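stuck on whats below:

***
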Amino acid sequence: MCGRVVQKTPLGEIRVLFETVNPLPNMAVTYNGAPTQNLAVVRLDGDGRRSLDLLRWGLIPSWAKDRSIGPRLINAMAETVAAKPAFRDAFRHRRCLVPVDFFYEWQKTASGKQPGGKQPGGKQPYAISLADGAPMALAGLWERWKDPDDGATLHSFTVITGPPNELVAPIHNRMPVILPHQAWRSWLGEDRADSGDLLALLRPYPAASMRAYKVAARVGNVRNNDPELLEPVAA
């Protein structure tokens, strides 16, 4: 799964990189973005223009009775995303890109001891990014949900995961789908693409273009949100 991310590149730079046209949302950088938080997402607006918006992480389908389902839908599996009821309509009509600088993943270890602290269950966290340090675009879906109690509309998103590449495989058996720049137009719906074309984009990113290193266990606490979370620790 993918359950923690870093969004530290200033949104002004994200706007230029992803060519969005709307006013910038008000968001502080986060070094420990987690489910149920509002994070920056790139999607198309009603006029077909790229928009940079803050959406709640954890997709809430339009038919959901309440928002409690969101934390269970922070990820969508690439293998079933086109067919699963919670995601299939969004896969057809509401795809998005999630710009992140890093994502965190946890590797099971024989001991609960890691540098920088103890992680319950014996898991060593890793910070994973592109090798050149540029922001990456995670494949996502977004949805709008109307609260039956007050009529307010909530926009939420999920990150698509798939099999890992050779770099991530020793750490975890899943990784987020990272889309190269040339795939962005098709994924967002600016260029015509059928379901088969879209599913073909959901493949592991080249391992040679990525890096991963161990970080301290304090990243496991979502209340910790500072640049030191990205400091490498000794093996």
The helical segments are 11-18, 88-93, 184-188, 195-200.
